[in-house]
């Protein structure tokens, strides 16, 4: 068992209350239509710039090349096989969803991508470079930011200060220089504050910037967590159930923000979400996990028609 295996990396501090099952969805997986979706849809087959849904605006960024290639990833915690021989890729600028019933290995997959878990087998190629035993800080420096399934914020700190922690990996001056508020450190801090204010405006949370996070309703805390991730100016954003436990209105807001981030900054997004309506509406491609194995991969239409996916969802007892 690895060091990481002793602590659940999707549940940092207590505070999260949600866990939605795969059945608490607003959308449904349809019955098989024109046969199974392809096991793997390459980027080229995704139609660039196309509006995914008539309600959604046209995408400003066309999907680019593969930037993350996961090949034959296997991860076990002692006897528990969390991931078995999983391969899929993520293209630049796309919204890539990972779905599957509880315990399918979705959070573990995100933890592999951002270097929290190190798979026993497989290759991870990020922007053309094979990565070995990468630490989460190194992943952050490479532009990968994430939010957690259970909110991981400092509850006693203000919204502003929490978001500021998202820029920690970008600080260049030493702690002493910052403590003395001296020269370049001062200029740097001003730059960080400006960026944080931009994120606050973007996510429309100006009114709560001085409020301690613990006093906020759950939906807003989730938004602050997104803000903290965005403050790191990531090129790839990993979102672990960003809408779980939210009411319909909060979900709509979060959906809009995710699409806005993707469209305005071109941020590549890997999204775990149980709400099938949301997944089908906003993602370009979907990978489906079940009991640690990949059972589907393709466009939303393809996975909706995949008999294995339908079976996993209809047959899931959780
Ligand atoms: N740190 C860990 N230690 C032991 N088992 C773990 C750990 N993380 C995940 N698992 C196990 O791996 C499997 C997949 O979990 P997870 O990735 O959290 O699934 P999902 O996010 O799809 O619900 C589960 O059986 C879970 O109990
Ligand atoms: Mg999870």
Automatic annotation (TrEMBL):
Listed Pfam families: ABC_tran, BCA_ABC_TP_C
- Bias regions of kind Polar residues — which residues? 16-31
Q: Does the record's keyword annotation contain Cytoplasm? A: no
Instruction: Write down the superkingdom of origin.
Output: Bacteria
Keyword Nucleotidyltransferase carried by entry: no
Domain (ABC transporter): give its ranges. 68-316
GO MF annotations for this entry?
Answer: ATP binding
Give the keywords, sorted. Answer: ATP-binding, Cell inner membrane, Cell membrane, Membrane, Nucleotide-binding, Transport
Q: Which InterPro entries match?
A: AAA+_ATPase, ABC_AA/LPS_Transport, ABC_transporter-like_ATP-bd, BCA_ABC_TP_C, P-loop_NTPase
Protein name per UniProt: Vitamin B12 import ATP-binding protein BtuD
- In which organism is this protein found? Cupriavidus pampae
Primary gene name = btuD_7
